[in-house]
Amino acid sequence: MPNLIGAKKERIKMKNNSSIENFDNAPDSSLVSITAACLLSSRSRSSIYRHNQAGELPFVKLGKSTRIRVGDLRKLIGAAQ
After folding, report:
1. Which residues pair with 62 in a beta bridge?
2. pLDDT, tens digit, for every residue of 25-75?
3. If you placed Cys at 36, which of 24, 32, 45, 58 could pair as Cys (CB 3.0 to 4.6 Å)?
4. What is the pTM of this model?
């Protein structure tokens, strides 16, 4: 039986690859998914939600989709360094 979890993770990485590759050149107003934010910041999904609850990382809701502004993610990453 194929490893479905591994295959799903690989699809997510491929889907978010453009977000990750363009992160340095993206304007601060650009939006990334929570999954891409996890990969970019090397934080878990739970950690991203904790930062949101603490008011450190605002979310942007687009219908049912939740996104994070690149500028806000950069601030979070910069504050940790």
Report:
1. 65
2. 889 999 999 999 998 899 999 999 999 999 999 999 999 999 999 999 999
3. 32
4. 0.75
How far is the C-alpha of 1 from the C-alpha of 12, rounded, in Å? 20
The partner residues of 67 in beta bridges, in order of sequence, read 33, 60
Question: CA–CA distance from 11 to each of 3, 17, 52, 54 (Å)?
Answer: 13, 10, 26, 31
Q: Judge whether 68 and 29 are in contact, CB under 8 Å.
A: no
Instruction: Look up residue 18 and give its amino acid.
Output: S
Q: Which of 38, 42, 28 is nearest to 74 (CA)?
A: 28
> Which residues have CB under 8 Å from 17's CB, separation 6+?
none
In order of their start, the domains of the chain are 4-80 (1.10.10)
